[in-house]
Amino acid sequence: MNKNRRFMLGAAAALMGLSMLARRSQAATGPALSADERALHALNRLGYGPRPSDAAAIAEQGAEKWLDRFLSEQLEPRRLAQPAALSERLAGLEVLTLSQGELLGRYREAVKATREARREQAKGETPSAESMKALNAVREKVRPLVQQAATARLARGLQSPAQLEEVLTEFWFNHFNVFAGKGPVGVLVADYEQRAIRPHVLGRFRDMLGATARHPAMLVYLDNAQSVAPGFTPRRAAANPQRASGLNENYARELMELHTLGVDGGYTQRDVTELARMLTGWGIDQRQAAGDVFAFDARKHDSGGKTWLGQPVRGAGQAEGERALDVLAAHPATARNLARKFAQAFVADVPPPALVQKLADNFTASGGDLRELTRTLIRADEFWSLEAYQAKFKTPYQYLLSSMRALDLPLVNPQPLQQALAQAGQPLFGAATPDGYKNTAAAWRNPEALTQRVQLATTLGQRSGVSAERLGITLGASVSEPTRRTLASEPAGQQVALMLASPDFMKR
């Protein structure tokens, strides 16, 4: 470990000790949040942290007036004009313009070219120049699609004035997680976010539930595209019986355990099996070269009678699955499960029970209106309490974006940032398990994470050329006085990195 790195880690550790003492004292004796603290709290919880322009606007308008306008606009994101630079960047991303059929076509070309090259290798032959040329050409068409999906997410999180929409998109994508590393899911994640998640984050939960259930990314990731009625045999299976598949319960299980009812939602293993039967035939039309590829195949559907959640279900084709989604979206257990996760993500790792109940009641009363759910959260006293202030530890993704926003850094080359997230354990679209990434401190607050954040803080601080004084103005009341005093005694060239590496900044 070099001398500079030892200094940074030692100073960061000292800052952590001072900051913890200051926060304990404030929690025990401090008053309610000031107007400036409320404004910063909103920027950190309902967005990815302040930019210098936010600090300037707060100073010019006054914190209370600024906050009223901010909260009103964030709940109506279409009122906010997208910066020209962001619009131009998104317009240049091919992945956002291709249809599901075209995206899957690109993937199939890559698979075909890879198989041909491997076939030649298996024969002991060196892959032909034509084979390698085709393989490389297809790879060049597929790999950038996944990178472009990450670029779109990072660019929006960094530059979009609709910060609440971005935070909610991250939350709901994680709730309905799909893994880019499984088969063709990688080329589909941008479309999945763009069409199944983003349009519904301030809409109806039932609409989002249906959009994710029918999207090819989810159908592939949780194997429902392969799930068919017992005994179904594809036409081509006569020559190759291994192509035949049967009932797959993966999606049905996660649909109830994670997406709706929760692990303690009162269902049984039989309910999982019966729901899987109800969803047979929901799959992908591989013949679609363009447009949407979802298709219901009645030949693959189990049309027999079922009993699910204690109720008889008659054979009704696709309508069985749609009815199941209706029931799950309106179930009281779903309201409680979503309320708990929402409060945990936006208020505290152990959310106040009264707030969870308030959110669950609102979800039920509004018929799953997510704008009203979000509005209820923002109006709740628990959200603005002193106990909630800087009580959440930033995930690597939140830390990266908040650092770049505070330093007002442009998104020049996204790839090093993607690599930094991967090294920190949170690659974009890289959560392999259906429960997605954790948002609690226990998942991310460890010595290795501290080391990585110090390294990133040093790199970004050097890139920015921002002074510690300017950064301190941007971060305002979120940086405690003990931290500021400690920083003032450190070398000027290290102060920006130390401020970003301080425990004050690692919290939101």
Mean pLDDT: 91
Largest sheet: 2 strands, antiparallel
Which of globular, elongated, flat, extended, rod-shaped describes the shape? globular
Would you tell me the structural class of the helices and strands? mainly alpha
Order of strands, main sheet, comes to: 1-2
Strand elements, count: 4
The residue ranges in which pLDDT falls below 50 over 5 or more consecutive positions are 18-29, 237-242
**Run of helices and strands:** HHHHHHHHHHHHHEEEEHHHHHHHHHHHH
Query: What is the number of helical segments per DSSP (H or I, 4+ residues)?
Result: 25
User: What is the radius of gyration computed over CA atoms, rounded to a whole number of angstroms?
Assistant: 25 Å
- Portion of residues in helices? 55-70%
Terminus-to-terminus distance: 30 Å
Proportion of strand residues: under 5%
Would you spell out the secondary-structure blueprint of this structure?
Elements: H1 3-29, H2 35-45, H3 52-61, H4 63-74, H5 84-91, H6 100-122, H7 129-159, H8 163-175, H9 185-197, H10 205-214, H11 216-221, H12 250-259, H13 269-278, E1 282-284, E2 294-296, E3 306-308, E4 311-313, H14 318-330, H15 332-346, H16 353-365, H17 370-379, H18 396-407, H19 414-423, H20 441-444, H21 447-464, H22 468-475, H23 481-488, H24 492-501, H25 503-506
Antiparallel strand pairs: 1-2, 3-4
